[in-house]
Specification:
Order of helices and strands: HHHEEHHHHHHH
Number of domains: 2
Strand order of the largest sheet: 1-2
CATH topology of the largest domain: Four Helix Bundle (Hemerythrin (Met), subunit A)
Shape: elongated
Number of helices: 10
CATH class of the largest domain: Mainly Alpha
CATH superfamily of the largest domain: GntR ligand-binding domain-like
Radius of gyration: 19 Å
Largest sheet: 2 strands, antiparallel
Helix content: over 70%
Structural class: mainly alpha
CATH architecture of the largest domain: Up-down Bundle
Number of strands: 2
């Protein structure tokens, strides 16, 4: 899983490598990390460097060190990685219009990148999420959950870690708004159709159409 570092290392480099694996979903919430000895061998560093890196990752809330059981990726990963962004925006106050503007700048670009970069696995995940949204019509809570899942799958398909982190933060802020919007059945149907259009553009690798479909969706409602 890990590659030996090609130069004298510092705990910061180990931290960044593990964070990258987490953000790329090669390590997921609840996964157990290799032992301290195994990590030292894989990175080609001392166990002291591994201990220092794990201590820092634990302080950040990204991993949990369980005495006698090993180190695990935190189950509350989203909060650990992006809570500072969410708090910064919330403390600023009056976020509704700001969020709408931010989405119009960020999400159409993500959709365009996803149309160019999505793998077969990415497309499968997006389609599964769209189908789950269809099945959730009539269940606002489940639909809102799958709506968020679609946007995060899209962000992962864009293959840009900065955009992925940013979108996770934005989705946390938008969650209540989306859940409120899809209380009405008619809104649920519109929301589903918009996501189908975005998916179809991704499947066709039409970056322009994907960008336009996403912008149109944000203009109409919070879905």
């Amino acid at each position: 899983m890990f590659e030996k570092l090609q130069k004298s290392t510092y705990p910061e480099l180990i931290i960044e490598e593990i964070k990258k694996l987490i953000l790329d979903q090669e390590l997921e919430p609840g996964d157990r990390l290799p032992s301290e000895r195994e990590l030292a061998e894989q990175f080609g560093v001392s166990r002291a460097s591994i201990r220092e890196a794990i201590t820092a990752l634990s302080a950040l809330g990204l991993v949990e060190a369980r005495t006698g059981d090993g180190t695990y990726v935190s189950a509350n990963l989203t909060d650990a990685v992006l809570q500072p962004l969410s708090w910064a925006v919330l403390l600023a106050g009056g976020v509704g219009q700001d969020l709408a503007e931010a989405r119009k700048i960020i999400e159409p670009g993500i959709a365009a990148l996803a149309a160019r970069r999505a793998t077969a696995s990415d497309k499968k995940k997006l389609l599964e999420t769209v189908n789950s949204m269809r099945e959730a019509i009539g269940n606002p809570s489940a639909l809102a959950e799958q709506d968020l899942a679609f946007h995060m799958a899209l962000a992962r398909a864009a293959r840009n870690r900065v955009l992925l982190e940013t979108m996770t933060g934005l989705q946390r802020l938008l969650q209540a708004l989306i859940a409120s919007h899809v209380l009405e059945t008619e809104n649920q149907k519109v929301c589903l159709q918009e996501h189908i259009e975005i998916y179809n553009a991704i499947e066709a690798r039409d970056a322009t159409k994907a960008q336009q479909a996403m912008l149109g969706s944000i203009d109409k409602d919070p879905c």
